């Protein structure tokens, strides 16, 4: 018993020391955050996936090393743009074949530059499964998506741009960390689920050809934007999601539609509030955001965007499923989700099955949107391991 108590005491002391170390080093990291991301727009010139700059993160989780990276990627219109990411790798020696890389797509945090997860006091906070993946020997890379942290146009819910950024983040990670293989697992939640699905489609279509995407996993994905808009437009999430999409769609579709055409769906109150809404971050400025959005519920748009051009076209083009993925897909959904309706995810799974994809679909009673990714981890980790080892996978379809 004394030995057990002593061991527990040592473990607790170690955990507290690591927590204190990370708080201190997070504070030091934060002093250099804004300076690190200030790079000239001309830095985008170069190969997709190449690194513009990288710097170690002092507050990496115990037993790992981490870096912030600014890298080049490709937007939906084929132009080179800048993005940023966090790379985390276990400190123990990599296997001879190299580490498989988990590329993570984060859920909605906002659409403005300061809303990037890597700018949080703890830049690892939104990397769901980070500790589990590190313990299993994986490396993990988390893009902020273009337009966040680094100056540039927002890419919120622009599927191809987000998907390319997830793939190019892996190429960038290979340049800053030793021992990373070309094998990639794509993993995303909500907005990041849409990004991961598009990354899978882009890889299947030949983007980032040096990478081998082995599987795609998503939790409560924003897969079908048309259905998402139909379900949410008369709610707080609907006002927030649609507001964040205005600047990104305006930038992505500037060559096809004018800003006036895109904004025409807004009410006068919606137009007045749009700049304030899009400047606020969901997790760090949620109270301010909700104070503006709440009075606009039912009065933000004058017609349903999913039934009004050019939004009908833009939502359709940024919904997953128009091209194949071709590798196993894991889909998780909480049945108490009031942001991504479970029926929308079920419809997307039916679509995948109808196109011949190999799907593992898991649902969780009583689980809300926020928790969908976390609760799926005990199922996802062995599923990933089985895919990588070539074990036969169960089939929902």
From TrEMBL:
GO terms for molecular function: hydrolase activity. Keywords: Hydrolase. The keyword Transmembrane does not apply. The keyword Hydrolase applies. Pfam families: LIP (PF03583). InterPro entries: AB_hydrolase_fold (IPR029058), Lipase_secreted (IPR005152). This is Alpha/beta fold hydrolase. The lineage of its organism: Bacteria, Bacillati, Actinomycetota, Actinomycetes, Micrococcales.
């Amino acid at each position: 018993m004394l030995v057990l108590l002593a061991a527990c005491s040592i473990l607790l002391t170690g955990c507290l020391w690591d927590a204190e170390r990370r708080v201190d080093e997070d504070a030091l990291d934060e002093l250099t955050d804004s300076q690190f991301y200030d790079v000239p727009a001309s830095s985008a010139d170069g190969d997709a996936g190449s690194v513009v700059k990288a710097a170690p993160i002092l507050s990496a989780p115990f037993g790992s090393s981490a870096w912030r990276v600014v890298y080049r990627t490709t937007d939906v219109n084929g132009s080179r743009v800048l993005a940023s990411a966090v790379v985390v790798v276990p400190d123990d020696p990599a296997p001879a074949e190299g580490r498989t890389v988990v590329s993570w797509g984060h859920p909605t945090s906002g659409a403005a530059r300061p809303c990037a997860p890597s700018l949080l006091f703890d830049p690892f906070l939104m990397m769901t499964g980070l500790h589990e993946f590190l313990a299993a020997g994986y490396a993990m890379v988390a893009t902020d998506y273009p337009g966040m942290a680094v100056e540039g146009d927002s890419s919120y819910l622009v599927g191809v741009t987000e998907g390319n950024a997830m793939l190019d983040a892996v190429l960038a990670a290979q340049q800053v960390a030793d021992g990373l293989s070309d094998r990639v697992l794509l993993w995303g939640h909500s907005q990041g689920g849409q990004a991961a699905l598009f990354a899978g489609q882009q890889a299947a279509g030949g983007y980032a050809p040096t990478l081998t995407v082995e599987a795609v996993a998503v939790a409560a994905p924003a897969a079908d934007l048309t259905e998402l808009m139909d379900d949410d437009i008369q709610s707080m999430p609907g006002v927030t999601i649609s507001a964040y999409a205005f600047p990104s769609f305006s930038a992505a579709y500037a060559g096809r539609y004018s800003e006036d055409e895109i904004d025409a769906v807004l009410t006068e109150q919606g137009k007045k509030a749009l700049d304030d809404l899009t400047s606020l971050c969901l997790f760090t400025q949620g109270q301010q955001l909700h104070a503006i959005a709440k009075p606009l519920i039912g009065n933000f748009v004058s017609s349903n965007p999913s039934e009004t051009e050019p939004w009908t076209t833009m939502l359709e083009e940024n919904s997953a499923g128009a091209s194949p993925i071709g590798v196993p897909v894991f889909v998780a959904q909480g049945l108490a989700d009031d942001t991504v309706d479970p029926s929308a995810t079920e419809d997307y799974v039916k679509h995948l099955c109808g196109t011949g994809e190999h799907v593992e679909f898991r649902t969780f009673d009583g689980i809300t949107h926020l928790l969908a990714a976390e609760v799926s981890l005990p199922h996802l980790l062995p599923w990933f391991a089985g895919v990588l080892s070539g074990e036969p996978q169960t089939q929902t379809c």
